[in-house]
TrEMBL record:
Molecular functions per Gene Ontology: FAD binding; methylenetetrahydrofolate reductase [NAD(P)H] activity
One GO cellular component term: cytosol
Keyword GTP-binding part of the UniProt annotation: no
Keywords: FAD, Flavoprotein, Oxidoreductase
Domain MTHFR SAM-binding regulatory as annotated: residue spans: 219-478
Gene Ontology BP annotations: methionine biosynthetic process; tetrahydrofolate interconversion
Source organism: Ophiocordyceps sinensis
Location of region: Disordered: 145-176
Family statement drawn from the similarity comment of this UniProt entry: Belongs to the methylenetetrahydrofolate reductase family.
The keyword GTP-binding is annotated on this UniProt entry: no
Domain of life (superkingdom): Eukaryota
Annotated InterPro entries: FAD-linked_oxidoreductase-like, Mehydrof_redctse-like, MTHFR_C
Source organism phylogeny: Eukaryota, Fungi, Dikarya, Ascomycota, Pezizomycotina
The protein's name in its UniProt record: MTHFR SAM-binding regulatory domain-containing protein
Length: 480
């Protein structure tokens, strides 16, 4: 099984090299190409960077043409991978035996299902064929139905033999939804879970594909997380989390780390590192290997001011009230939609500063308009859900959708969520990165002592402001 790739020519050269190897050991060994469906523009850019997989310019041009519409990016991705499947099938390099395909799904099923259906990779089951639905076979007699205690209604003597013409069976979706009792007539009754799924074998291949592609109530449950957002996604989603899988790591060598961040010896040195990252003078910080995103340019002065006073930011977003989904900076999702954002910021700050900030966040005039989560390296935890005390247990925890989109013909999509369970999981990694950074420098050095001391002192805090109409509300709260 190969690593993911998009360059068919490179794959063909690879297979030819194996098949023609002088030893003959690879003449008939099965080779399974590894393909990754394109789930999103930024996701595939990052994936190819991490895997060093070359993306042909022709494919990149097709993605660039629709980069502002996430739905179209997915559909172009389906076309691209489907074409690759057909091209690989056409490669003739000797007796390779039965060839299969492996899909790197990232736990997202819709695109894979569309590819499998489009390329015919899944052999059709006889029960799934169209003929099984429309054959002119006699219907079993309809049951006698009694309405409101009146005389039973009997079927007309002018019975129709074709399922295609039957008023009961003409539409496989047209069934009565019943509950609280077993299905007596499954040919025209459906349980609530089956609503919107074509009649027939519920576990048939056709129905399984239909569900994975988003059809019906079960389909909505299968594709509700179709716009994942890394660690800011819904923790219930199988696609939750970052795609690199590296865990606690600086993602670079010691030499690269020293070249980027030098030898910090004071808190002021750290302020400079974070501010330079905000200003675009540094390509990365230990918690983010990417430069500041374009949408953050609207809040850059606020972020610089926070970092200048040793409140070191690792994630943030501005408030947005109904930007078009086609907006080049803030837009995402299908066209003709609107996107919304609550402002939030996640940052480290000294424990003394946290005590004062916590008191302010808990004040009556502020607490109803914000939500916060905070923890330190030893696991002390506080949140706006807690009734009191740093370690108090709340009977419920809030889930904060901080990005959502409204699109024609779709339910509201909420790809960015901040909640306690994901914050706690991330905080362990975030504090671990302080330790990884300290290891770059020699044991007992000024830099190692500084970084380990800061890890033991600071709190990691995430604050969400609910007023997305007032774009400055969060920043006024933190800076005034």
């Amino acid at each position: 099984m190969t690593q993911l790739f998009f360059d068919i020519d490179a794959y063909e050269r690879f297979e030819k090299t194996l098949r023609e190897h002088p030893s003959g050991a690879f003449t008939s060994i099965p080779i399974m190409p590894g393909l990754m469906p394109i789930q999103g523009y930024q996701m595939i850019k990052r994936t190819t960077k991490l895997s060093h997989a070359r993306m042909p310019e022709s494919i990149m041009a097709r993605l660039n043409a629709v980069r502002g519409d996430d739905e179209r990016v997915k559909m172009v991705g389906v076309d691209v991978i489907s074409e690759m499947v057909e091209q690989i099938r056409a490669i003739k390099t000797g007796d390779s035996g039965h060839r299969g395909f492996h899909f790197y799904t990232l736990n997202l099923e819709k695109a894979v299902s569309l590819i499998v259906e489009k390329t015919g990779l899944m052999q059709q089951d006889s029960s799934d064929s169209d003929e099984a639905v429309v054959d002119d076979v006699p219907l079993s007699p309809l049951p006698i139905i009694q309405l409101n205690g009146n005389a039973p209604l009997r079927p007309s003597s002018h019975s129709r033999t074709s399922r295609r013409h039957s008023s009961v069976g003409s539409d496989p979706h047209n069934r009565v939804i019943v509950g609280n009792r077993p299905l007596a007539h499954p040919e025209w009754e459906a349980a609530g879970q089956e609503a919107g799924v074509p009649a027939g074998g519920i576990n048939s291949r056709a129905n399984t594909l239909a569900i994975s592609e988003g059809e019906g109530a079960l389909g909505r449950e299968a594709t509700w997380d179709d716009f994942p957002n890394g660690r800011f996604g819904d923790a219930r989603s199988p696609a939750y989390g970052e795609i690199d899988g590296y865990g606690v790591s600086l993602h670079m060598s010691v030499t690269q780390a020293v070249r980027l961040w030098g030898y910090p010896a004071t808190r002021r040195d750290l302020d400079d590192i974070f501010v330079k990252h905000m200003q675009g003078q540094l390509a990365a910080i230990p918690w983010s290997e990417e430069e500041l995103m374009a949408e953050s340019s609207t809040i850059k002065p606020c972020l610089i001011e926070l970092n200048s006073k040793s409140w070191w930011t690792v994630a943030s977003q501005p408030a947005i009230n109904g930007a078009p989904s086609s907006d080049p900076t803030f837009g995402w999702g299908p066209v003709n939609g609107f996107v919304f954002q609550k402002s939030f910021v996640e940052f480290f700050l000294p424990s003394d500063d946290w005590k004062a900030l916590h008191e302010r966040l808990s004040s009556p005039e502020v607490r109803e308009s914000i939500c916060f989560y905070a923890t330190n390296s030893v696991g002390d935890f506080a949140s706006s859900d807690s009734s009191g005390g740093l370690n108090s247990a709340s009977s419920w925890t809030s889930t904060n959708a901080v990005t959502w989109g409204v699109f024609p013909g779709k339910e509201i999509v909420t790809p960015t969520i901040i909640e306690e369970v994901s914050f706690r999981a991330w905080s362990e990694e975030a504090f671990g990165i302080w330790g990884e950074w300290a290891k770059v420098y020699g044991r007992g050095s000024d830099s190692e002592t500084l970084l380990n001391g800061i890890r033991d002192d600071v709190w990691l805090v995430n604050i969400i402001h609910h007023d997305f109409v007032d774009t400055n509300a969060l920043w006024k709260l933190l800076l005034e």
